[in-house]
Every structure is written in C-alpha cells, then in structure tokens.
Amino acid sequence: MKYPILIAGGGLAGLVCSIELAQAGLRVILIERKKYPHHKVCGEYVSNEVRPYLEKLRLDLKALGAVEIQRFRLTSPRGNVLDTRLDLGGFGISRYRLDAALYELALQAGVEVVLNTTITDIQWKADGFEVQTPEACYQAEIVVGAYGKRARLDRQLERPFMQQPSPYLGVKYHVRYDFPDDLIALHNFKGGYCGISAVEEGKFCFCYLIERAALKAFGSIPVMEKKVLARNPHLYSILHEAEFLYDKPEVINEISFAPKKAIENHILMAGDAAGLITPLCGNGMAMAIRAGSMAAHEITGYFNHHHNRAQLEEKYAQRWQNEFSTRLWVGRKIQRLFGSEALSEMALHFFGMVPPAMRLVIRRTHGSPF
Ligand SMILES: Cc1cc2nc3c(=O)[nH]c(=O)nc-3n(C[C@H](O)[C@H](O)[C@H](O)COP(=O)(O)OP(=O)(O)OC[C@H]3O[C@@H](n4cnc5c(N)ncnc54)[C@H](O)[C@@H]3O)c2cc1C
Fold first, then answer.
1. Residue-level pLDDT at 96
2. Which of 211, 148, 202 is CA-nearest to residue 339?
3. What is the DSSP letter of 232?
C-alpha cells in the first residue's frame, strides 16, 4: 500500500493536517490508535488564536456547545486570588467532542482513516518511509508524526528527550459545579496546578498536573487529592462540592516538557510530538492545530509547487522554530514559578502588584489569531 502522505496519530495536529491536505486535493491516510469519540487528559480551554482557522474549516463551534471564556483567575496554594481579563480569550469544549467533530470533517474531505490501529514502527528507506502496524505495512513519501507527547515510536527514533526524566502526571475529570462559565481558574498547590473551566452542556473540565512523586508518597489518587490539592481552599471546595461525572479519572503518566526537534529522521513532527508547552499556558491545543496547518501548507508546496525534500524540511523546521520556540521557552520558565508553595505565593504577589506583567506573560505564550 503506497501513499503520498501518511499521518501518524489523529489528535488535533494530525486531524487538522489531514483535512487541509485532502482539501488541497492530495491523497492522505491517517492512522489513529483509538476510535472516536474518546476522552483525553487536557484542560479543554482553547485559545482564540485558532478560532478563525477552525471556523474557516467549517467547524461549527456554537453547534458543538463551545463556551466563551474571557476571564482568568490565579490562586496561590494558600488560596490568595488574582483576577484578570484575558485579552485574546478562548472557549471551552471537550476533546471528546472536538476531536470527533474534526474526524467527521476529515472523512468529509476524503481522508482515508484507519482507526483502532497502533503504528509500531516508522523506518526511513532512502527516498520514502515504511510504516508498520500489526496488520499491515504502508509505504509513504511523506510522514507527519502527530502522535502526541510521548510514544514508543520516540524510543525507536532514539529521540534524546526520552533519556530525560518525565516527572509529571496528568489527571482529568468532568464535573458539575457552581462556577462562572466565562472564567478559567488555575489553582496552585505544592508540586502542581489544577485548571477548571466550562465545556459544553453545563459541565466543567477539572484537570491537573502534579509531580509523580506525590502519587508515590500517598499511594492513590483520592488520598493524594485530599492531602495535596485540598490544601488550596478553592480546590478543597471543588473536591467536596462538585459532582464528579466519571467513574474514574483519565490519567496520563510521563509528561515531559523537554525540547524536541520538529524534524526527526525526515518525519515532520507536529503538535506535542514536536514540543509540549506547559499546560498552565493553556495553549497546547492551539499550537497543535497551528503546527498541523503549517505542516499541511509546506507539504502542499512540496507536491504542488515541486519543492524538494530538503526544502520541505528546512522550511517547516524554520517556520516551526519562528512560531513556537519562544512560547515553549517562556512556558518552561513560568512552570518553575509554580512548583513550590513559596514561589507560587511570591509570583501571585508580584503579578498582583504589577498587573501588566501577567498579561505580558500570557501574550508571550500565545500567538496572534490566524
Ligand atoms: C494536564 C494537561 C492539561 C492540558 N490543558 C490544556 C488546555 O487547557 N489547553 C490547551 O490548549 N492545551 C492543553 N494541554 C495540551 C494539549 O492537550 C496538547 O498540547 C494537545 O492535545 C496536543 O495535540 P496533539 O494532536 O499534538 O496530540 P494528541 O491530542 O495527544 O493526539 C495524538 C494522537 O496520536 C495517537 N497515537 C499515539 N501513538 C500512536 C501510534 N503509535 N499509532 C497511532 N496513533 C497514535 C493518540 O491516540 C492520539 O489520538 C494540556 C496538557 C496536559 C498534559
């Protein structure tokens, strides 16, 4: 089976990339490990940076139930509060709905989608790729790696970040809670932070990132939540008053924010596979969508304007660097402020004294609408 373009992974980056390529008249196959819809560990706040783009793809955000979010609240581990407005703003929608809606658009655009199939190996063979799944071997001229933050494929590609420790754990629930729809709150606690914001149908996404050491120390998620998160009084209230809608939380392990490369063994990496921004920036989804679109643009240039492979790789790597490297760097620096209780208190105090500083940091981690 030979394809011009194969996309490994159908999250936001992979789906968006496949839709644009198919709409440009190119044959594209996308292979995704799961089927749609599915839940995913994610805060589900999408920056308005990508709203015009999603609307151009004809994604009807209103019909999907997306909720407008315009205000931001930051709390310290002791419960001190800082409120600000979000200059760009965003919207809340579950990944359960958003990814499935993009999948429908991909089918309509003519993308060939293979679901419930894990890619086990991607080999570069002089002038193209061999992509292995348990059932078949695909040949492809171009491969986009859109398989998310960390996969076995990274180990096979011997990517250096796989050698570094990945000390974080992500946990997510959907809850019902008495909370304003237009507000996203980021509550800090020792060793992590937790976001809460509205998604469709009156539900809220409650999602946190925490050092794995905390789970090791307390043995289970409920005990860890009681002993660590609930020390922040805002989180105490949510944990005690909210109605939790899942039987058990969605959990992911081994989250790393180490730098990665946008091109790896000729594969164009997009979304988290190329670099994961710290979740407190609330912008990983927008970056994945933007990177998927950038990859599609450069691949279209390769096929329709006869750019060669070296040009394709160089242009994509350069654009990726220009667009995302500063955001990722700023994200890593801010994350350090929120690891310890004392630093979080100091950061909140500082941002309270100098409100434009917080808005500047938010701007430096976001791009302009496209
Ligand atoms: C705790 C936490 C909270 C976050 N909160 C927010 C937020 O509020 N706002 C925001 O903008 N961003 C947030 N992010 C970041 C955001 O979730 C990611 O940046 C975004 O999901 C990246 O999209 P992606 O398409 O690159 O990867 P993914 O959405 O992870 O998609 C990758 C896909 O590849 C598939 N896959 C993996 N391996 C294989 C394989 N071998 N074969 C086939 N398929 C495969 C997976 O099943 C998956 O569907 C958060 C992240 C974390 C960890």
1. 98
2. 211
3. S
Mean pLDDT along residues 117-122: 98
Task: Name the band, by pLDDT with cuts 50, 70 and 90, for residue 353.
Answer: confident
User: Measuring from each residue's beta carbon to the nearest atom of ligand 1, which residues come in under 6 Å?
Assistant: 8-14, 31-34, 40-46, 118-119, 146-148, 151, 153, 170, 195, 207, 209, 255, 271-273, 276, 279, 282-286, 288
Q: Is residue 370 part of a domain?
A: no
Question: Does 331 fall in a domain?
Answer: yes
Using the mean position of ligand 1's atoms as its centre, give its distance from the Cα of residue 362 in Å. Answer: 21
pLDDT at 320 over 80: yes
Enclosing domain of residue 219:
2-364
- Residue of minimum CA distance from atom 52 in ligand 1: 42
**Calculated CA dihedral for residues 141, 146, 150, 151, nearest 10 degrees:** -50
Whether the per-residue pLDDT at 219 is higher than 80: the answer is: yes
Flag whether 357 is in a domain. Answer: yes
3-class state of residue 286 by DSSP: helix
What's the structural domain count of the chain?
1
What is the Å distance from ligand 1's center to 11 Cα? Answer: 6
- Please report the DSSP string for 144-207 in residue order: EE---S--HHHHHTT-GGGGS---EEEEEEEEE-S--TTEEEEEEETTEEEEEEE-STT-EEEE
Say how far apart CA 218 and CA 360 lie, in whole Å: 37
Region 119-142 average pLDDT:
96
CATH number of residue 126's parent domain: 3.50.50.60
Confidence of residue 127 (pLDDT cuts 50, 70, 90): confident
